[in-house]
Structure formats: structure tokens, C-alpha cells
Design goal:
Layout (H helix, E strand, L loop, with lengths): L1 E2 L13 H10 L4 E4 L7 H10 L4 E5 L10 H8 L2 H4 L2 E10 L7 H18 L3 E6 L2 H9 L8 E3 L6 H8 L5 E4 L10 H8 L4 E3 L21 H12 L3 H16 L5
Parallel strand pairs: 1-2, 2-3, 3-4, 4-5, 5-6, 6-7, 7-8
Helix pairs in contact: 5-6, 9-10
Length: 257
């Protein structure tokens, strides 16, 4: 199993980061992808990748919630880092209008810039989307380059939204602990998405799955998500694991131990 989206580099794991990695290995997690958030978080990702070079991969991108009036300067400082680090994706990037719409146009411009990085470097994207799908699709529709490949992480949309996204490209969809929540509509989305375009993720330290909801999430919880997806799709956990491993390896061009 691959955790395709985990923030174990953040300060929530400062006291037991190595132990969290060991627990993930012991739980059967074969690889972890770290999505970047800001300029400040890059050294943390890099240090963790250097410590576990064959087990942990890093990405580079400016999270939409970290976009403010200095975003162009931040992006100009971030871009040279594409040559410095072994990046497997641009992310996480996107649109988040859930709490605040103040920086909507800046988020759209930043998304456009970073999607061009994907094209220039032949890298996939990791999209973060909250109340921003219309804007994301607008940016994609107005790209003056081919649409990159990528994943819509923590996807909780509707079947209609899956189809709208697929009109723009053959993208993947990340499913995390939300799929296990009692009122979640994600289980009904799984047949629409299909195993061939599904990625497992934790988004740790957030969104811990049942039976650990409310606790700090970590990559070792991936088996709970895998088992729930398997039950919802009437297939074996081994089939979900094999398919989502193949998907992650293909999208991120990574070797899975």
C-alpha cells in the first residue's frame, strides 16, 4: 500500500516521526509521498526524503491557503528548487475558498503558473480543492499548454463532478479516511472512479479513519482505508492494494519497495 498524501513532516510528528515511519512500514505501507505546502516546509520534506530516500518521495508546490500578496515572490523563490530536489510532483496546489475568498484570483494565477511547471518538467500535479472546482476547471480550460496528468486529492465530490473533471483529462482521485465516516458519500463514488484511477492517502495528521477518528492520523492507518474501500467495492484488500500501488507508481514515476 502507498500513502500518496501524508504530512508526517509537520510539527505534529516532531516527537515521534521515526516511530511513525516504522509503524507505517510495519502496517504494510510500502511508500509515502509528501505534498509540500510552502517555502518554509521544503527543508522538512527534503530532510525526511534524505533520511528515507527509497521509502519517502517529496513534491514541491504552494498550497492555496498559503497564497497571499507575496505569492509571486514566493513562487519565484520556489521554482529554482525544482532543480535542487528530486521532485515527483507539483503539489499540493489548487483552489481553497472554504474559509476565505480574498485571494481567489491570486490562487487561480498561482495554479496556472504551477501547472506550467508540470508541463515544463513533465511532472504530475496534486490538486487541493475546497469549494473551488469551478475555478480549477476554468484554469485548466484556459491553459496555453497541454493539460498535465495528476490527482485530485481528498476527493469528496459528486459523480457529476467526476465526469466534469474527466472531460479535461484522465486524472486520478485520492481517497482517504473520509470514506470511512458514517455520513460519507465517498463510498458511492468509488464505482464511478474505478480502481484503475484510485489512490489511497491519509492526509495525516488530519482525517483519521474509523476506528481512529478524532485522533492524530498517520500513514499506518492506510490499511483501514484500504479495507473499507475493498468492502465498498466488493473486492479483496489485496486487489485494492495492488491496483492503487500500480496507480501511484505510474502517476509519480516512483519505485515501490
Amino acid at each position: 500500500m502507498v500513502d500518496s498524501h501524508s504530512h508526517i513532516y509537520c510539527d505534529a510528528f516532531d516527537e515521534d516521526r521515526d516511530e511513525a515511519v516504522k509503524r507505517a512500514r510495519d502496517a504494510g505501507v510500502r511508500h509515502i509521498v509528501l505534498p509540500n505546502e510552502s517555502l518554509e516546509s521544503v527543508p522538512r520534506l527534503a530532510a525526511l526524503h534524505e533520511q528515507y530516500p527509497d521509502y519517502i518521495s517529496m513534491t514541491l508546490g504552494l498550497h492555496p491557503e498559503d497564497i497571499h500578496d507575496d505569492y509571486l515572490d514566493v513562487l519565484s523563490q520556489m521554482r529554482p528548487l525544482l532543480d535542487r530536489y528530486p521532485i515527483v510532483a507539483i503539489g499540493e496546489i489548487g483552489i481553497d475558498l472554504y474559509w476565505d475568498k480574498t485571494w481567489r484570483e491570486e490562487q487561480k494565477r498561482a495554479l496556472d503558473i504551477q501547472l506550467h511547471w508540470c508541463h515544463e518538467r513533465d511532472l504530475p500535479f496534486i490538486i487541493h480543492c475546497r469549494d473551488g472546482l469551478d475555478d480549477i476547471l476554468e484554469v485548466i480550460d484556459q491553459l496555453d499548454c497541454p493539460v498535465p496528468r495528476g490527482v485530485f486529492h481528498s476527493f469528496t465530490g459528486t459523480p457529476e463532478e467526476v465526469n466534469r473533471i474527466r472531460e479535461r483529462g484522465d486524472f486520478y482521485f485520492g481517497v482517504n479516511g473520509i470514506v470511512t465516516f458514517k455520513k460519507s458519500t465517498v463510498p458511492q463514488l468509488l464505482p464511478v472512479i474505478g480502481l484503475d484511477r484510485l489512490l489511497l492517502e491519509t492526509d495525516s495528521p488530519y482525517l483519521a479513519p474509523l476506528p481512529n477518528r478524532g485522533k492524530r492520523n498517520e500513514s499506518a492507518n492506510i490499511p483501514h482505508i484500504c479495507n473499507f474501500v475493498a468492502q465498498a467495492m466488493s473486492v479483496s484488500p489485496e486487489e485494492v492494494s495492488a491496483a492503487t500501488d500500480r496507480n501511484a507508481a505510474s502517476l509519480f514515476s516512483i519505485h515501490i519497495e
